[in-house]
Amino acid sequence: MPTGRGLRTVTPVRAKTATLAAAALTAALLLGGCLGRDAVCRDGEYPAKAVGNPTGRVCVRDGQDPPAGYVRYPDGKVPKHVDDEWDVYWRGKTVDESGNIVSG
């Protein structure tokens, strides 16, 4: 039968282990959020490129057309996250009303 002394030494070890595990999980979640990639647009939206403006873009609700002065990015070349391949590619590129690259 365990003595009171044995119970006292086991309980603090378990509590310390649980506390360390919770702290590690919290740190991982916080760091994951800080190191995660920022989305260009929110869920339910897509980005559209500004016509005649190399850096302009707007987020449009899914199912709606881009507003006047903006065009859709070509399929397969849509930036999803800040600094991803297509976000970097489209920087400095200017498009016309048809979405054709005219400079950059």
TrEMBL record:
The UniProt entry, under InterPro entries, shows:
SCO0607-like
Out of the domains of life, which is the source? Bacteria
For this entry, the protein name equals Lipoprotein
